[in-house]
Each structure stands twice: as C-alpha cells, then as structure tokens.
Write a structure and sequence with these properties.
By secondary structure, the chain is mainly beta. It has a single domain, classed as predicted glycosyltransferase like domains (Thrombin, subunit H, Beta Barrel), CATH 2.40.10. A 6-stranded antiparallel barrel has the order 2-3-4-7-6-5. The radius of gyration is 13 Å and the shape is globular.
C-alpha cells in the first residue's frame, strides 16, 4: 500500500465545479480535502484525466483551482466517489482556511 503524501481532512462542505470546456456548473459536497486534492461523491463517474475548474468556499472567500480526476469508484445510492488532484498543490494555510470555514 502506498503512503499518502498529504494529510486528509474530513470535511462536509459544498463545492462547485465545472468540467473544462463545457457549459454548466455542478454543486456537490466534499468528503475530504488535502493539499494535493479532494474527494467527493457525484451522480455519476467522470472519465479519468478530465480537467475541472473548482470553487471551494474558504474563510476569506472562494478558492478557485484547477484539477484532474485521478480515480473514480462506485459509491452508495448509485453515486460515484471521485478523487481529484490539484494541478498545483495548495499551501497548508489554504486547506486550514477551507476546513475552518466548516
């Protein structure tokens, strides 16, 4: 088993994301967040490698970032759990702002 690079913080926060080059935004809830990425449940699977634009609420206003889908697995109630990796890792202070808001 491979060790994780970053500590994951459980969080129940609403985020919005848009699939790059597509119209429309989706609102979902986070399961956890780390400096390297996020995990959340979606209504369906999204192809691995898909680029996303993400808005995460933080104490000093929304944090916008770009990410890619790195894994997807079936979850409860016909949903899929998605793992995303940020294109640029977040500073620990940014993750703290997100976690502290919730």
């Amino acid at each position: 088993m491979q060790a994780r690079k970053f500590t994951r913080y459980p969080i129940d926060a609403s985020i919005s994301f848009a699939i790059e080059n597509m119209i429309g935004e989706h609102q979902l809830y986070l399961k956890d967040a780390s400096q390297g990425g996020l995990c959340f449940n979606a209504r369906g699977c999204i192809q691995l490698g898909t680029s996303l634009n993400i808005k995460i609420p933080a104490v000093d206003g929304p944090h916008d970032t770009k990410a890619k889908i790195t894994w997807c697995q079936p979850s409860e109630n016909g949903q899929c759990q998605l793992g995303i990796k940020f294109e640029q890792k977040l500073a620990l202070a940014e993750i703290e702002k997100i976690v502290l808001r919730h």
